[in-house]
Design goal:
Its main location: cytoplasm. This protein has 186 residues and is of the alpha+beta class. The chain has 4 helices and 6 strands, in the order αββββαββαα. It is elongated.
């Protein structure tokens, strides 16, 4: 394995860690409606659990309401039940062929809990990124030990990976700051 391969692999894994954080943070409910909140909800469809987006059309009616329109009328009850039983604390209401899902306002206490949660998620992502840096540095040390690269090349490679790490951690901090501002906005 070469320095370039290790660097590319480490960079890709760091990007995946950041994307995973973004996906996890989309599930955090703020006072504002967002169709991504419902992405992880599974609906029973002919005996198989499938994501809600595969059985219904999700749209924003306004800033605080999501409308869910199942493609088949017989799926109304199953979709409504799945949303109600999810861990999101939402209360859907049927209106003809659509289901309206209003986003309840968040209390100050709940907002603080959510900010603690997102900070913990961000810290886990930073730890994962630092672990990737450590793994890359160990790989560089092994290349030096096997006399495939010089110590100077190792030092340059470690500096390069440190820059990648700093950039990824800064991106995580920016994502957390944006999400925290979104949650604390009343």
């Amino acid at each position: 394995m070469s320095i370039a391969n290790i660097r590319k692999s480490t960079e890709d894994k760091m990007k995946r860690s950041i994307e995973s954080l973004k996906t996890d943070l989309q599930k955090v409910r703020t006072g504002r409606a967002h169709t991504g909140i419902l992405d992880h909800i599974q609906v029973e469809y002919y005996g198989q659990p499938v994501p809600i987006s595969q059985v219904a059309n999700l749209q924003l009616a306004d800033a605080r309401t999501i409308t869910v329109q199942p493609w088949e009328k017989n799926m109304m009850a199953a979709v409504e039940k799945a949303i109600r039983e999810s861990d999101l604390g939402l209360n859907p209401a049927s209106m003809g062929e659509t289901i309206r899902v209003p986003m309840p306002a968040l209390t100050e206490e709940r907002r603080r809990e959510l900010t603690k949660f997102i900070k913990a998620e961000g810290e886990q992502t930073k730890v994962a990124i630092r672990n990737l840096r450590r793994d890359a540095n160990e790989a560089f040390k092994k290349l030096v030990k096997d006399k495939e690269i010089s110590e100077d090349d190792e030092r340059r490679a470690q500096d390069d990976v440190q820059k990648l790490t700093d950039k990824a951690v800064a991106e995580v901090d920016q994502i957390l700051q944006t999400k925290e501002a979104e949650i604390m906005t009343v």
